[in-house]
Amino acid sequence: MKFLALIIIVIIISCIFYSFRPFINKGDISIVNGKEAKSTEDDYAQQREMMVEQQIVARGVKSKKVLDAMNSVPRHLFVPVRYRRGSYFDQPLPIGLGQTISQPYIVALMTELLDVDNDDIVLEIGTGSGYQAAVLSTIVKKLYTIEIIEELGIQAAERLKSLEYDNVEVKISDGGLGLPGKAPFDAIIVTAAAPKIPDSLIKQLKPGGRMVIPVDNNSYSQDLLIVEKSEDGKINIKNTIPVRFVPLVKGEKVAE
């Protein structure tokens, strides 16, 4: 019986190890015929298609422009190399400095809820890796994105430029203060959880515009809210789904 118990324990430990192996591997590799091999862009393209079908379409996202954007943006290039094998997994991933790249489905859902088009000027709060910005840039006319952590903002700006997302402008600032010098915006998307909807962002939203933002609730969790401003300036708030985002970091500097 002791021998059988030992075998079972070894099997369980092996299963746990291989489940987490993609996230502790040092390189950008996959397993082919029992051997380690580097993933190719074709491999990633196939994984991206599966991601869209199995994680996004299957959960009800229908917008063709959103699905096309999710299928075209190389998510693996926005993920640190050590986590790259998990780029298209159904989960968020760490990008350093206590921040994450959001789960693919959440990126797609928030983009669909934002309901933007190719003549819209949009503000994003929380650049992070730049992935959400890249997705939106394929749909909108112009995107301004604010990141309070300077190191992340610089990295994201360089990454977006190298990948030729030329309609994105990165600012290093306190996102909660918005970007008054470029307001009003057709839409605002916030990718970090705020204790409440910032008044500054509501003021910078164009009449007829929409904001998508995760906000803390009274149950020690967060709700993904849609904030709509009518043509006469009235605010309507809709609750969609519970979510989990890193908190919105506060600062003092307002971007220009």
Which class of the domain at 92-243 in CATH terms?
Alpha Beta
Number of helices: 7
CATH fold name of the domain at 92-243: Rossmann fold
Beta fraction of the residues? 25-35%
- Averaging pLDDT over every residue, what do you get? 88
Enumerate the strands of the largest sheet in spatial order, edge to edge or round the barrel: 7-6-5-8-9-10-11
The level of helicity is 25-40%
CATH architecture of the domain at 92-243: 3-Layer(aba) Sandwich
Low-pLDDT stretches are 2-27, 29-36
Rg over C-alpha atoms, rounded to the nearest angstrom: 20 Å
Instruction: Give the biggest sheet.
Output: 7 strands, mixed
The succession of helices and strands, N to C, reads HEEHHEEHEHEHEEHEEE
Name the shape in a single word. Answer: globular
CATH superfamily of the domain at 92-243: Vaccinia Virus protein VP39
Number of strands: 11
Amino- and carboxy-terminal Cα gap:
71 Å
Q: Give the class from helix and strand content and strand pairing.
A: alpha/beta
